Amino acid sequence: MTTAPGFIIAGGGLAAAKLAQALRANDFDGTVTLVCGEERLPYERPPLSKDCLLGKKTTAEAVVEPAKWYRDHHVEVLLGTTVTGIDRATKTVELPDGTTLPYDKLALATGSRPRRLPVPGADADGVYTLRTAPDSEALLEMFGAARRLVVIGAGWIGLEVTAAARTAGLEVTVLESLSTPLRTVLGTEMGEVFAALHREHGVDLRTDVRVAEITTAAGRATGVRLSDDTIVEADAVLIAVGARPNIELAVDAGLATADGVLVDESLATSDPDIVAVGDIADQQHPVLGRRIRVEHWANALNQPAVAAATMLGRPAVYDRLPYFFTDQYDLGMEYTGYVARKQETRVVVRGDVGAREFVALWLDSGNRVLAGMNVNVWDVTDRIKELILSGAPADPDRLADTAVPL
Predict the structure, then answer these.
(1) Segments in 274-341 forming alpha helices (H)
(2) Residues 194 and 207 placed together within one structural domain of the fold
(3) Mean of the pLDDT values across residues 348-364?
(4) Boundary residue ending a domain (191, 218, 241)
(5) Fewer C-beta neighbours within 10 Å, C or N terminus of the chain?
(6) Final residue before a domain boundary, out of 253, 284, 311
């Protein structure tokens, strides 16, 4: 008598839930176990900094699938626990209570966590980060009690929370160490679009500043002291200085890692019986011809279908271009493609930047389109993908001409 193969998914986010879905959709009839660190079923994270903070959706509504789906599809969900170790020789994982679970195939979907800010006061009451549903709920509660918020970091999370806080009527100061918001992602020119947007909505945006300390009284945050000793008073502080991938489990197991868990085009790790998906997957991308690790919703949504096929021993390649989106005030944006940090590019704009209705395209030195960002202009993502995938040089003047279809 043979035992049906068992697959374990370490993680409890969108990628983990989608992987379980994909396995069952591919008629896998073995056991599937999700080991979820939170006491909640897997949920999507984009609403946490958008609709949930605006009061348009509850965190419960962000759940990927209700409990009934897991029961109906015979997926065991272990809530409030984590995989603490992997024994690749015996093909078992260890849980915090010392018990072990055997696996035939293992998926790592352990996600990421907010980066800490190494300054005094960072652990005080009234200092927030945003990653989980409870984090979002705590911020929304704070919106109803506080008057002044300081946001440290002008990346996507920082700016989305800022927009929600301003909509809720809080006074918001944003502190950014670089010269413009989002500079490492969008460059200076496009970063200034977001700087202008927030300043128009009454945000005190301060760039090129260094945080020296989060000031406190009786253990609670009262503001932020900058390196020049300027004090910015606040009732609450949000630290939004990026995320760190949770790769410790993979490192301890001896898997190949760098900035993340190294995976090939099929999302297999250096151990053929283990795949990795989502924030931690540092993939050899077949289209871009380089390794990339993307901390965005689209990867968690789309990678699991490929990982499921790989776990089932079927050929599969993850070749989607990176994609992300944001909503801030009346600005909606989608970004498709990839520009390496420090890569020399030029930005071609078609449309009206001042009105915030435009498409920006990043070109390399050979005028090949690397990425595109559409701001309050819709139904162009597929055209942008075609331009990128063609690999052909484009005429910048024609790209900028709105009379010429993309």
Answers:
(1) 297-311
(2) yes
(3) 97
(4) 241
(5) N
(6) 311
